[in-house]
Amino acid sequence: MFKDEKITRKSDLEKNDSLSAYDGMTCQQNSNCFELFYKLIEDKRPRRILEIGTALGGFTQYLKHVCDELNMDTDIRTYDIDDRYEYSIMIKKGIDVRVEDIFLQDYSGLLNTEIAEYIKSEGNVIVLCDGGNKIKEFNLLSQYLKTGDIIMAHDYGYDTETFSKKINKVYWNWHEISESDIDESVKKYNLKPYMQDEFDRAVWVCKIKE
After folding, report:
1. What's the pTM value of the predicted model, to 2 decimals?
2. Vertex 57, ends 53 and 60: CA angle to 5°?
């Protein structure tokens, strides 16, 4: 098992909670995410990481730790619509935390045009969709990807049957995005599975732009 002394693995899916934490900050992630994201970041060595949905900040802080441990000068920018006291701690550690809504109400476009440029700028980026509407976040942001960029979304199960049989109360209890929800964007923008068999255990969809 992947080990890091700052990782706390605690969950009871029968009681509908998953309290994995990093350095005392709640991650709201299946604990399989730690090893898999370490491997992904080590593999792809992204120039930037864009996260939609900071939440309680533990997962974002873990991503920063991984980049630092691998001696990578990776810029991490994370957005949430609600401010929390944890964010001041994260900012002091070099994480660019921004409290603002970046999407038009119907997700037909971006309120903040900097986001598109952030993704399209030189160097590989990992885009993490974990906000209030993963489906629309994925479908909107995927159009800005460059070759080699990664886009992911949390609370993923391939379909309802797969989630019911293999994921629910095993790895995770929340199913907010399926393959059929993103199929059009996957085809349109030439996105291919990346480490998907592994990321299934962490309930993330993972696609690379080819």
Report:
1. 0.95
2. 80
